[in-house]
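To assess whether ligand presence alters the predicted conformation, the chain was also submitted together with zinc ion. Input:
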Amino acid sequence: FTPRYLADYRAAYFSITRVDLTFELEHQKTRVTNQMHFTRNKAHNLPLVLDGEQVTLVSVKLDGEILASTEYQVDDHSLTLAVDRDDFQLEIVTEINPADNTALEGLFKSGDAYCTQCEAEGFRRISYYLDRPDVMATFTTKVIADKRQCPHLLSNGNKIAAGNLANGKHFVQWHDPFPKPSYLFALVAGDFEVLRDQYLTMSGRDVALEIFVDKGNINKAHHAMASLKRAMAWDEQTFGLEYDLDIYMIVAVDFFNMGAMENKGLNVFNSKYVLADETSATDVDYFNVEAVIGHEYFHNWTGNRVTCRDWFQLSLKEGLTVFRDQQFSADMHSAAVTRIQNVRVLRSQQFAEDAGPMAHPIRPEKVIEMNNFYTLTVYEKGAEVIRMLHTILGKEKFRQGLDLYFSRFDGMAVTCDDFINAMADATGTDLEQFKLWYSQSGTPLLTVSEYYDEQNAQYHLTIAQSNNEQPALHIPVGIELITSEQQNDAHLLALTKAKQSWTFEGVKEKPVLALLTDFTAPVKTNFPQSDQALACIMTRADDEFCRWDAGQKLLTTYITRVMKQPQMSLPDSLYQVFESILSADTAAAFKAEQLTLPSFNELVDSIEAVNPIALLDAIETVKRSLAKQLAPLFLKQYQASAQAGYSHDGIAIGKRALKNVCLSYLVTLDNHEHLLSQQYQSANNMTDTLAALSCAAAYPSQELNTLMADFAIKWSDNTLVMDKWFALQASINNDTIFDKLSDLMAHPLFSLKNPNRARAVIAAFTQNNPRYFHCASGRGYQFLIEQLVLLNDINPQVASRLITPLIQFKSLDAKRQSMIKEQLVKLQQHDKLAKDLQEKVDAALA
Ligand code: HT7
Ligand code: ZN
């Protein structure tokens, strides 16, 4: 497979200005008639090369004249045609097979509905086209299908015609006035229920809002609709950005490779990020629905109105849009808790990616399979880069920069440099050094040292940055100096050199340094602080992120010590810290975060040659010791956080989180199992039910099977809840797990063709069951490889995401590394390995 390089980018030789599509939808043989208007870009005599894959070519017409098959060349991925005209019309007819499309790219079926997914390069599986984001055209789309099977026929833009046809068929025609790249094209056809509402924009236009869901699910779409309206209002208030079409449609489907897709005017969503009601959705589900609805809506400006010149620029739209959705969530909920959750994702997953074989800058330079670059780095680190810009420029200037970006580039396909230049020009800021964040991979390490000069009342701080010998970055470092003074002294430092020092005057006593307030930069730190200093930050820092982070550092220290010396006892000071957290009068949601131990994934990366079982044992020992020592307090907090009725406001959600984290401590103790069944039986919401079941899966007892069976009976006809059931089963922490996994794969409701279900078993096992995934026999690794071999032929994109834990083995002990490599070599030798997996396996074994 040949890589593509950013450095090889060339503008397209032809433009497509208008596209007129007709789809005659049939289960196994859909006919697509694609009329395109081309113009030649500048003078050249190169042939026209169109992308096309897995389509059957029926005919080609040039300006109305049918071409003989000798007049063009077709291979597996292109159609080449020599044309001497500067302005011409091409009509290409293809046939495609949605029913057999298990890769879920291009046109496929989700149950009985037809659905498309074109990002990144799916349109070429529908028709021959210049399938690249810098070719932008206006689309008119006519959809023809059986009226009974598909009463709803949808595409981008506004409906311009509809009518009945012979043989029980009907058609609807749509026109999207905004020029767009092919990756934003969408078509959906099926039988849905529709939740309708409307939104009055800030300039007084009425926008029709429609959410399409499977029949029987309409009551689960209200939260999504309310979230959409909140997102529309937020973007107007925060960035002055208004929606532009007369209609905004969202369709929820069960078969989908990722979370959702921002197609112009017609978002397609994994049903998991639309459907939610009190009984079947957890608080986390509610949060995620709002966040993903916001994310896709925000793309209308950051992605659709201004799009990417090429796929190497993906972070231009994704990093910026994730930053926008994070700010939206922070404004809708607790800003501190939202930030803590962002950082947990970054530390536990993005840092590992950046240290692994697939590490890449947020603007990658070399790609084999584009789908492999929808990564935590492009999305989450990309969002951190935008956040740093926001921190450096400040809110007002950031807004000025964004305003200039939109006025310069509306309707265009641009680069990350274009974005940064607009921010620099609008604010008169030199951002040349800052641009390095786009081209460096790896997580920078800040090594911090301090010196207090009592005589001169000066505090000296030195920070050195390092990242594999790469040039120094511009890193904003927020700090607080804590002394006995009433006010802490807060600063934003601009670290721009490899090593830099600052002197703070008039500091009357040695301060405690709270570093990286609000996590101002995606970096690791090397700054050992005493338990007392950390305890001081936990209670005295103004910045809530630092308060939380100090607790995490303290816990990390003791978990790593216990790992090396399993018999050691924890110091009283640690118990005291936890006692004060439990007894403090802090917001419940924040307290729940403080009580949550750093996860296996957050810790594993920073320990060399780690035996994962020893690390898991150490986490468990610390948890059990805290539970034992402070059992009455955990119980008291557990009981005090119980609520009589169910409500969904921030306070109620926080209380549930706190109650359930206390439960997770209490169940480590011998005589507390009854709490699980009690909570399961009395729960009036899915958050509490699932918390009880997760604890039961983590500490399996006699009761577990009864509870799981009861749950399955209750929810057997709810697909999304059954995904939770499959995930719980795959997380059961005992040595019957491999038999259990075989049973699950053979379960009548299991299918590898459904990505949510496949992930529910496979990802739940590899992520939530690390003790057995990493078991000494290597059976966990073998299980994953067996599933990947099957998935490779069904859905390579899903397979490629699931392989992640197997390629990030660098910090594991030698024995496990060699077992993993052995499995990867087997996979590498598989004939017909899709390029998605090939790229990753080759990188891991290189
Ligand atoms: N822009 C989208 C990225 C995407 C995708 C979505 C669904 C299925 C396959 C996909 N490939 C790429 C989603 C987003 O970031 O909003
Ligand atoms: Zn996105």
